[in-house]
Design a protein that fits this description.
The structure holds 2 protein chains of 2 kinds. Chain A is mainly alpha-helical. Chain A is built from 6 helices and 3 strands. In chain B, strands 3-4-5-6 form a 4-stranded antiparallel beta sheet, covered by helices on one side. Chain B has a 4-stranded antiparallel beta sheet with strand order 7-8-9-10. The chains are: A mainly alpha, B alpha+beta. Chains A and B meet through helix 1, strand 1, helix 5, strand 3 and helix 6 of A and strand 4, helix 5, strand 10, strand 11 and strand 12 of B.
Chain lengths: 123, 277
């Protein structure tokens, strides 16, 4: 698939993410826990967030395949909300690029990855 | 693990079970055999039938997850072929379920979960910790990296990998084996995910520097064998009990491979404060 801009790339990822979200929400619901409020997708591109709400910058986004606008439906019926998140706090960064040591360790911690000895000292 | 079968299936007389004088005859199967085409289906039908008799509801989006509501309590059973784990909000109901399973199937109870599919589980007051340290060690021993010097990150930022047809070829089988074993490790080590998926793109024709990148990843692993995911008990930052949140990111044309320039997508799903997917 060819994406023409970062916004479009982020938009497509958010749409895929939303699909996974729906599935996970169903499983969680089956376990007896129902989330009433919309699930947040944190995204570090504010144009993408705007695009999910309204059809803005129409001339630059009109080519985006209709299936990705599935995301907009989900945002409209409040299954999902897109929220802005600073690039430095973007956990998913660890999945998309090689990072510098400090940032890598910070995000690794945010993912919940710890060493065994850190756990036993907490308990 | 032997389900009932519907079809008539015959097998050759296996060595040691040959009847004298009737060497040309075959055996008819009464139950499914391990490795049979129908075996998986037969087994699943059998166990599913049991669950529906016991009034469990099957999750529509995950067919190996069963739940049952009993007097306001919930019992959750997760199935992986013939391994199953279960939990519930009431001890008596769990005991009851265990007893009924033992009547129906030849089952051994391993008690509180410590291992599941090679994943080590440590439970304490603070939460649940899962890791694959034994598996990580096995990988390092297998690729002879146990005594390497460890490094602090899996990949040097700005590393450029490309297809490069000129480099020296390395043993493709070994390269594939390394990637395959690292893939399973990403279950409890999401921090390895990016690097593993990046090197796996070059699986078709691995060169010396792809192998070097793999070795660096193994060296990082050597220093972080004991790492795993920790699911903290209780509340998250917002004070909600358990909530799903998601991060999504993409790296537009971020692949520095000059022939390729692909974008990379990434997403993280979290429950509370720890990643699940």
């Amino acid at each position: 698939m060819v994406s023409l801009s970062t916004t479009e790339a982020e938009y497509i990822v958010a749409a895929y993410c939303a699909c996974q979200c729906i599935w996970l929400k169903r499983i969680i619901k089956h376990l007896g826990i129902e989330a009433k409020e919309a699930t947040e997708i944190l995204c570090d591109n504010s144009s993408t967030i705007q695009l999910s709400k309204n059809s803005v910058f129409h001339d630059r986004s009109k080519h985006i395949a209709v299936r990705f606008h599935f995301l907009r439906d989900l945002v409209n019926d409040q299954t999902i909300t897109l929220k802005y998140c600073n690039t430095n706090e973007q956990v998913a960064d660890i999945m998309t690029k090689a990072l510098k040591i400090e940032q890598f360790e910070k995000l690794r911690r945010m993912l919940g990855v710890f060493a065994v000895h850190e756990i036993s000292s907490r308990a | 693990m032997h389900g009932e079968i519907q079809e008539n299936i015959y097998v050759h007389q296996p060595a040691g079970f040959i009847k004298e004088g009737k060497e040309n005859q075959v055996y008819k199967l009464k139950k499914a055999l391990y490795g049979l085409k129908q075996a998986r289906r037969a087994w699943y039908s059998k166990i599913e039938a049991y669950f529906s008799r016991a009034q469990f509801t099957r999750c529509t989006s995950e067919h190996t997850l069963f739940t049952k509501q009993v007097r306001g309590n919930i019992l959750v059973v997760s199935l992986y072929v013939d391994d199953l784990i279960f939990t519930g909000s009431c001890k008596a109901i769990c005991e009851e379920f265990k007893h009924s399973m033992q009547l129906e199937f030849d089952m051994t109870d391993l008690g509180k979960m410590r291992h599941f599919l090679g994943i080590e589980v440590i439970q304490n007051e603070a939460g649940i910790f899962i890791c694959q340290r034994r598996y990580a060690r096995e990988i390092l021993v297998r690729f002879d990296m146990m005594h390497s010097n460890s490094v602090t990150n899996p990949m040097v930022p700005g590393t450029v990998l490309s297809k490069d047809n000129e480099g020296i070829s390395v043993d493709a089988t070994k390269f594939k084996q390394a990637i395959g074993s690292l893939m399973y490790l990403t279950v409890t080590r999401p921090d390895l995910m990016f690097c593993v998926s990046l090197i796996s793109r070059y699986m078709a024709n691995p060169k010396a520097f792809h192998w070097a990148a793999t070795k660096r990843l193994l060296r990082y692993l050597q220093g972080t064998i004991e790492y795993g995911l920790f699911y903290k008990k209780g509340q998250n930052k917002k004070g909600q009990k358990m909530s799903l949140s998601t991060y999504s990111d993409s790296n537009y044309a971020g692949d520095p491979d000059p022939d390729d320039r692909r974008s990379t997508t990434g997403s993280v799903f979290m429950i509370g404060t720890t990643a699940i997917s």
